[in-house]
Inverse folding.
């Protein structure tokens, strides 16, 4: 089989019915990692994934971890070839017709024309199968590369067992190249690939000034108010109106996006109107699109997620609580180090309210993907080949812990070839995927494998 | 019977057994106004109260309100005499051995030497009965005064029906003098009477910036954070570390305590050590006793009671909530007007974050009792007569809505003759009262009635 678009597109069309049958099979296994009761479905999904790999002619191994298993598939052609591993995840977000407005049963695969509805269709079972069909085509075209897949079943709960497991099995999982297919374009018209992911530092601040609720008449004025003091402390840490963090040193290591990256932002298809609509915002901090893209992709943040303590029932209860706790997190960008951010926070709190206890929660390093060089060019070429337009390199504002772990353990840059679209309803009701992205994806994968094989 | 201390003390001793039996009877009716399931006990308590008044030779009437009833008792001697009404409440705080460290059953009257344990012994059934025995003695001594009692059964839940009910029955409740017996001395060694009560203005601030929880990776930086903005707003309203309110005009009407009042504060027996111990504080805003007394009695406050919104479970969930709400209240002092404070708050919020909605919650005016003139002198004399020392006039930091209502409806100053002590455990486990305060109280009441009859 030749690596030309017409041939590959025709091949994909012939495979379509089988692709859809397989997607149906996986969507109808409700592999919800967040729900304890779905453990048997997680296991069923792992078994089905291993069987699929074997049916495609590969070797499959289910790797047990402290949590849900990993599935490793090998399609080895020759020890002389380089090895490329595609990462996807086969677990899904929870879904319920009772509490969410699904038009169809989320765990029944529903085809409407070119669109496929059901939980996991776009995140991430559809892209995983698109990669599998890319591998099948690459093998039929005899591309000189060994292709592996690594599928996780805990991505939606933050990959708690992933890094330990891949460290333990580093030898058998060893790979020369790593490709992740689990990201979203900014708009259907414009292919996009992530240039980086933000990191994360979670922090809990706790203050105890008393022992029991006290009467604000009897003690108010003399009593310290831990909610008030924590509110004041976080307001000293950042300006919630603008989002600007006021702690000294916080922005020191931030590298602003360069001209080329900003040009890609401008060409990404991002609009304020769509962003507000997608996320149901009444107002946001800025109405300038480039400023908003910088804010969500290229700048670090501070966020308050909740405040625990005091009275939260109806009306007012005039108590002074003995203690309070505020839950914070910081999104971090390329070049920022969570450990350094922890130090900045500890020093700031010690200076401004030394009675407040700082507890370090989860940390994730930011990730910067190459946007120039042969691998980035190979992505550009593969996506242009399949979709007709070069991708823009934008960033993802979120954090994928597994990506940082894979870069560290496999000692190779992690590249992204994502296929999901905003209208696919990531993590939302009526999640869907479509044949345009699936077939374009298959063609992109083949082209990318071919490009890498020639490096 | 002569109005001399020896005679009255001997009379009280002869009455002691009956006083204790009656207190036992009332303590063992669990008239908890905060608990719906106790409605039959509230009714039983009203009936027992009316029966007690009749047994003492008075006329009793149960006055129905929109909530729990009032009990009105009349001991009329002559239409030519002035009328004095003593207010107490017969409802009590909740109590439970399962959740609180009671040494004895809270609703079983337990006598240990001179001390009486049980819910309501000191707040406010013991003082109510002390007043009743004072009335009995006054009648035996033929003091030329008509003595009434007005007992409430909703004081512990903020007297929601009280003002309407006394307005409606203003004619039959009409009185020349009003005495409240429901306050606490600062220490056993030093009788004290309140010179005033703080008022209250409750406020809810609400901010909505979105519709549903959003992912802080995907939207963080651009999304507004309603918890952060409310934390910032309250930190602009006041300095939680010092307690100082920063809103312009807030302190304009505050009249600081004069020299005589400050001298009374100094003589009150207040100590920082005891205050911290009583309220189980780890630290407070000041360690200067006069400063602390000013803060809790004579200065207004701002307090944050709770913040609703966002994630409050274990660990961190990196969401940005669509809305948040903060519950505030302000204690107000003599001369401050809740309506003016509402205006100051509305103007401040409009200026600093106009998207925030201000909701006005409960208002209570502050109350200033006379500390000079014949009524104050009559209190001084009566307490010195019974307890050997002139009382200091201090203030109560809390707010008693009923007091302001009575002053307004009965058009007479409300005086205080309180008998509770800090070690009596107001609103706390092991609540108690003692014969020293009860018998001293009986003697004080007789002397006060006699003083007023001579005006």
């Amino acid at each position: 089989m030749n690596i030309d678009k017409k041939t590959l597109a025709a091949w994909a069309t012939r495979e379509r019915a089988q692709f859809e049958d397989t997607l149906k099979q996986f969507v109808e296994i409700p592999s919800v990692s967040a729900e304890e009761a779905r453990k048997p479905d997680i296991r069923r999904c792992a078994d089905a994934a291993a069987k699929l790999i074997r049916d495609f002619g590969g070797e499959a191994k289910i790797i047990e971890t402290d949590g849900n298993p990993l599935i490793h598939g090998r399609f080895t052609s020759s020890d002389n070839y380089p090895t490329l591993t595609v990462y996807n995840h086969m677990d899904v977000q929870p879904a319920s017709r009772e509490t969410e407005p699904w038009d169809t049963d989320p765990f029944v695969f529903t085809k409407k024309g070119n669109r496929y509805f059901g939980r996991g269709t776009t995140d991430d079972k559809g892209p995983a199968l698109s990669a599998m069909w890319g591998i099948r085509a690459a093998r039929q075209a005899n591309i000189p590369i060994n292709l592996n897949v690594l599928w996780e079943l805990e991505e939606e709960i933050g990959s708690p067992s992933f890094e330990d497991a891949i460290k333990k099995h580093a030898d058998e999982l060893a790979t020369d190249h790593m490709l992740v297919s689990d990201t979203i374009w900014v708009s259907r018209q414009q292919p996009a690939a992530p240039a980086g992911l933000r990191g994360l530092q979670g922090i809990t601040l706790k203050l105890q000034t008393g022992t029991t609720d006290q009467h604000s008449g009897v003690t108010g004025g003399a009593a310290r108010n831990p909610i008030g003091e924590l509110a004041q402390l976080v307001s000293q840490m950042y300006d919630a109106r603008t989002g600007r963090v006021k702690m000294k040193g916080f922005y020191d290591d931030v590298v602003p996006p360069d001209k080329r990256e900003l040009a890609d932002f401008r060409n990404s298809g991002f609009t304020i109107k769509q962003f507000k609509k997608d996320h149901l915002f009444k107002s946001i901090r800025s109405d300038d699109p480039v400023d908003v893209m910088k804010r969500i992709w290229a700048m670090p943040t501070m966020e308050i997620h909740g405040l625990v303590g005091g009275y939260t029932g109806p009306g007012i209860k005039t108590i002074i609580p003995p203690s309070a706790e505020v839950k914070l997190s910081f999104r971090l960008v390329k070049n920022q180090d969570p450990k350094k951010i922890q130090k900045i926070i500890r020093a700031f709190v010690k200076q401004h309210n030394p009675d407040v206890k700082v507890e370090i929660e989860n940390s994730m390093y930011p990730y910067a993907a190459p946007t120039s060089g042969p691998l980035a060019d190979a992505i550009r070429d593969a996506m242009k080949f399949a979709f007709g337009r070069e991708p823009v390199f934008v960033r993802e504002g979120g954090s994928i812990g597994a990506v940082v772990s894979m870069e560290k353990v496999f000692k190779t840059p992690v590249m992204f070839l994502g296929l999901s679209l905003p209208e696919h309803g990531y993590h939302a009701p009526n999640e869907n995927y479509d044949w345009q992205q699936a077939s374009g994806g298959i063609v992109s994968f083949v082209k990318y494998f071919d490009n890498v094989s020639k490096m």
User: Anything to note?
Assistant: Chain B has 13 helices and 18 strands. Chain B touches chain A through 81 residues (CB under 8 Å). The radius of gyration of chain B is 24 Å.
